[in-house]
Amino acid sequence: MRLSVNVDHVATIRQARMTDEPDPVWAASQAELAGACGITVHLRRDRRHIGDRDVEILRKTVAGVFNLEMKASEEMLGIAERIVPDMCTLVPEGEDELTTQGGLDIMAEEAEVKAAVARLKKKGIVVSIFIDPDVVQVGRAKAVGADIVELHTGIYADERAPETIQRELEKVRVAAIAANEMGLVAHGGHGLTYRNIEPIARIHEIEEVSIGHSIIARAVLVGVDLAVREMIALMDVAG
Ligand code: PXP
Q1: Which of 51, 127, 172, 187 could form a disulfide with 208 if both were Cys (CB 3.0 to 4.6 A apart)?
Q2: Distance between CA 225 and CA 133 in Å, rounded?
Q3: Measured from the CA of 214, which atom of ligand 1 is nearest?
């Protein structure tokens, strides 16, 4: 199974001070050097973390698959057509949500989604749709011309009781099998962590996962030791 690293939250820290560090472009390079198959960013309408500059530079610097996650709005479709990422993942986007709340309900906007998929594919972009692990949605993703379905693992990740974890895991597995049978590639993502990744990694029908928050959160903690030592060393030299 391949890992695409989502570097949105590197940009979240940068935007907390409206400064220029940490740079998600640098983090993306490190993630690729560590073995990630590619980089994912979500360009939101409100630009709360990733900005246009990040997308432009990452398009030129990501060596693996550059996946632009976005709402199928006119603005984002225009950006994707200009930048031409390797892959676009269509997601729903609410104004006040902390993060993506669930999969795209393709049936609710099927004509628009179909038109968006066609526009992106015309540019040679591989199109993924983020959906709940639901066989009906998988079928609609196929019908609108998607190449990939990214199965929402967030409900599985949020469950705490063994039976409900198992139930949600099974939904992901069944949807992944259905996707493969329909000729779609299955990906997974949302809420995956160092603690819950293993059962997902055992689903061989899922080719790739996209993980952001947990990796960036861990990177902050495993990096604190060295960062503090480096600052103290500079102070010691000066003092
Ligand atoms: N996949 C999609 C479609 C997402 O919206 C997100 C969050 O930006 C992720 C994967 C990564 O989720 P997390 O940050 O919880 O790993």
Answers
A1: 187
A2: 39
A3: 16
- With pLDDT > 70 as the criterion, what percentage of the chain qualifies? 100
Domain range for 106 is 2-238
Asked, as a colleague might, if the bond just before 22 is cis with ω within 30 of 0, I would say yes
Q: How does pLDDT run across 87-103, given as a tens digit for each residue?
A: 999 999 987 787 778 99
Tokens of 119: 């526009």
Q: Is the CB of residue 102 less than 8 Å from the CB of residue 134?
A: no
Alpha helices per DSSP H over the chain:
8-16, 24-33, 52-61, 74-83, 110-122, 135-143, 154-158, 162-181, 197-201, 213-238
Q: Which residues fall within 8 angstroms of residue 39, CB to CB, at 6 or more apart?
A: 4, 5, 6, 7, 28, 31, 32, 58, 62, 64, 65, 66, 67
What's this model's pTM, rounded to 2 decimal places? 0.96
Reduced to 3 states, what is the DSSP secondary structure of residue 211?
Answer: strand
Number of domains within the chain: 1
Report the distance separating Cα 197 and Cα 192, nearest Å: 6
CB burial of 134-146 (b: ≥16 within 10 Å; e: otherwise) equals: beebbebbbebbb
Q: What is the CATH number of the domain that holds 103?
A: 3.20.20.70
Q: Given ligand 1 and candidates 9, 44, 69, 151, which is best to mutate, with the most ligand atoms within 8 Å of its CB?
A: 69
